[in-house]
Specification:
Chain lengths: 111, 109
């Protein structure tokens, strides 16, 4: 079992819709969860992080964490063509500064 | 404040050659990392450092070496390049979150 798994995609959504990205992790010791956006040919950039169970909202982005189910998700509301990118989920254990990344989900927002 | 700077941006190596990928950060971060990213894959940790003089292996260290003589610099050395090392390499630093360099696209032929 991979340490971090993401829905394989690609995910195509119409402009203005909600894009829903899912991520599961295998290590119950994971404490911090991150979502990165990576445009084609560019480096990853951090868009959200979440440490506690529940929802965390930042603008059009909402991260959701359920540690009991070992599941973290990212919702992108009112999707825009500029949201078209690959989204990487990453997890970190509490006493460790190393991140484990999923393979990413590619999102395409159709105008 | 330049963040994390990587050089070169592109490089073609022949099998068996060696090279050093440079990484410099100006944020006084203690933690620095080297990742590789293969097409359609996430990032795999090669080596990391928690401070000057301290380095440790990540998931895929074979064929690579690092050093950390200063807080700012964390070069990655490839010895005896192999086609399997064709990848995009990212350097990153933290905390509070990982700031990535722009990447080095390496092709070994």
């Amino acid at each position: 079992q991979k340490e971090v798994e993401q829905n394989s995609g690609p995910l195509s959504v119409p402009e203005g819709a909600i894009a829903s990205l899912n991520c599961t992790y295998s290590d119950r010791g994971s404490q911090s969860f991150f979502w990165y956006r990576q445009y084609s040919g560019k480096s990853p950039e951090l868009i959200m992080f979440i440490y506690s169970n529940g929802d965390k909202e930042d603008g059009r982005f909402t991260a959701q964490l359920n540690k009991a189910s070992q599941y973290v998700s990212l919702l992108i509301r009112d999707s825009q063509p500029s949201d078209s990118a690959t989204y990487l989920c990453a997890v970190r254990r509490s006493n460790d500064y190393k991140l484990s990344f999923g393979a990413g989900t590619t999102v395409t927002v159709r105008a | 404040n330049a963040g994390v700077t990587q050089t070169p941006k592109f490089r073609i190596l022949k099998i068996g050659q060696s090279m050093t990928l440079q990484c410099t950060q100006d944020m006084n971060h203690n933690y620095m990392y080297w990742y590789r990213q293969d097409p359609g894959m996430g990032l795999k940790l090669i080596y990391y450092s928690v401070g000057a003089g301290i380095t440790d292996k990540g998931e895929v260290p074979n064929g690579y070496n690092v050093s950390r003589s200063t807080t700012e610099d964390f070069p990655l050395r490839l010895e005896l390049a192999a086609p399997s090392q064709t990848s995009v390499y990212f350097c990153a630093s933290s905390p509070p979150d990982k700031t990535f360099g722009s990447g080095t696209r390496l092709t070994v032929v």
